[in-house]
């Protein structure tokens, strides 16, 4: 089974209803191997989003991620990476609202930067991103223990 990294972005944590809804959707669809509230400092955020360095939204994005606590989860299921990305929906919120009005980004996204959540886009990205936010996590021993939330 595949694993992926999901991150719920700061504005969603500030909205208790939205945060609960997203967590519930996650629990219905995945094994949650790890979950924790995490403060993604500017430095960590720059490392996390290194592939976007130089883009016009890079500073805005990395500052936003450090504007409050995030919630990071390691998810497991068959075809987990694509499944979580489908539940999130398109990156751009206006597109999400138009084409997939029930996806997480359509429901809880506020702008292209504040688009509610993150999901790894490949196995390699998942491993890289998990190592940044869960440095203690041993991929090989992907314990079957599910975390209670
Ligand atoms: P993804 O999160 O769907 O994988 P990426 O292209 O990897 O999308 O972009 C990473 C993050 O950067 C997005 O989730 C979003 O927060 C932000 N972002 C992407 N494109 C834009 C944009 O055009 N304007 C503002 N922020 C953007
Ligand atoms: Mg991406």
From TrEMBL:
Annotated Gene Ontology cellular components are:
cilium
* Transmembrane parts of this sequence: none
Query: A single GO BP annotation from the record?
Result: negative regulation of oxidative stress-induced intrinsic apoptotic signaling pathway
Q: Which SMART domains match?
A: NDK
Among the GO molecular function terms of this UniProt record, one is: metal ion binding
Q: What are the Nucleoside diphosphate kinase-like domain coordinates in residue numbering? A: 1-141
Keyword terms: ATP-binding, Cytoplasm, Kinase, Magnesium, Metal-binding, Nucleotide metabolism, Nucleotide-binding, Transferase
Note the InterPro entries from the entry.
NDK-like_dom (IPR034907), NDK-like_dom_sf (IPR036850), NDPk6 (IPR037994), Nucleoside_diP_kinase (IPR001564), Nucleoside_diP_kinase_AS (IPR023005)
Enzyme Commission no = 2.7.4.6
- Recorded catalytic activity of this chain's protein: a 2'-deoxyribonucleoside 5'-diphosphate + ATP = a 2'-deoxyribonucleoside 5'-triphosphate + ADP
Q: Where does ATP bind?
A: 9, 57, 85, 91, 105, 115
Q: What class of enzyme is it?
A: transferase
> Which residue positions are annotated as catalytic?
118 (pros-phosphohistidine intermediate)
Similarity field: Belongs to the NDK family.
This protein is called Nucleoside diphosphate kinase
Origin organism is Drosophila lebanonensis
């Amino acid at each position: 089974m595949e694993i992926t990294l999901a991150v719920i972005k700061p504005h969603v944590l500030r909205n208790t209803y939205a945060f609960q809804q997203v967590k519930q959707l996650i629990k219905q669809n995945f094994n949650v191997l790890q979950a924790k509230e995490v403060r993604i400092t500017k430095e960590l955020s720059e490392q996390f989003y290194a592939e976007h360095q130089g883009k016009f939204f890079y500073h805005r994005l990395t500052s936003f991620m450090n504007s409050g606590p995030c919630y990071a989860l390691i998810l497991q299921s068959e075809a987990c990476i694509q499944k979580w990305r489908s539940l999130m929906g398109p990156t751009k919120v206006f597109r999400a609202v138009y084409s997939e009005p029930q996806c997480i980004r359509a429901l809880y996204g506020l702008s292209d930067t504040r688009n509610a959540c993150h999901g790894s886009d490949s196995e390699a990205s998942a491993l890289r991103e998990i190592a940044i936010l869960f440095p203690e996590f041993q991929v090989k021993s992907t314990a079957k223990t599910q975390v209670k939330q």
